[in-house]
Amino acid sequence: MKSKSILQAKTLIEVQFYDVDAMRVVWHGNYVKYLEKARCELLQMFDYNYLDMEASGYIWPVVDMRIKYVQSAKLAKTIEVTASLVEYESRLKIEYVIRDVETDAVLTKAYTVQVAIDMQTEEMQYQSPQVVLDKLAAYI
């Protein structure tokens, strides 16, 4: 899953009580929320957050996601979520690594794929719109 990163964002999250189960480990579904937080940080880095997407005439639904749980994140621990943009020409593919800050252990690996949908025609775009290429030009 390790691809060449075009742009990378990192965010720290302290695991809260409301995210864990009775065994004090993060419930598996909450990892999606952690990925989203890092993805939003990444999108903001190149000035194309969800409001910018909509303003440009496109929505970008997640059409594919894979999560590999390696170890559990635990209550009151701090985790670092790294989001790396690895594809942009026909879709946005973002790879993630979640690590325990204290031990540097890899807890989770994941990726998401988003595609552009023209808001007026509701048609999927097979190439990323020019606006994305323009916003990423400084990083490519």
For this structure, the CATH topology is Thiol Ester Dehydrase, Chain A
- Helix content bin: 10-25%
List the total number of helices.
3
State the domain count.
1
CA-based gyration radius:
16 Å
- The rounded distance between the terminal residues' Cα atoms is 20 Å
- Major beta-sheet overview: 5 strands, antiparallel
CATH-level-4 superfamily name:
Hotdog Thioesterase
Spatial order of the strands in the main sheet? 1-4-5-6-3
CATH architecture: Roll
CATH class: Alpha Beta
- The number of strands is 7
Query: Secondary-structure element order, as H and E?
Result: EHHEEEEEEH
Pfam families: 4HBT_2 (PF13279)
Protein name: 4-hydroxybenzoyl-CoA thioesterase
Keywords: Hydrolase
InterPro entries: 4-hydroxybenzoyl-CoA_TE, HotDog_dom_sf, YbgC/YbaW
Structure notes:
Keywords: Hydrolase. This protein is an alpha+beta fold. The chain has a single domain (7-137), classed as Thiol Ester Dehydrase, Chain A (Roll), CATH 3.10.129.10. It is 21% helix and 34% strand. The model has no long low-confidence stretch (mean pLDDT 96).
Provide the fold topology.
Layout: E1 7-14, H1 30-45, H2 50-55, E2 58-59, E3 62-69, E4 78-87, E5 92-100, E6 106-114, E7 117-118, H3 130-136
Antiparallel strand pairs: 1-4, 2-7, 3-6, 4-5, 5-6
Comma- or semicolon-separated keywords:
140 residues; 34% strand; Thiol Ester Dehydrase, Chain A; elongated; alpha+beta; five-stranded antiparallel sheet
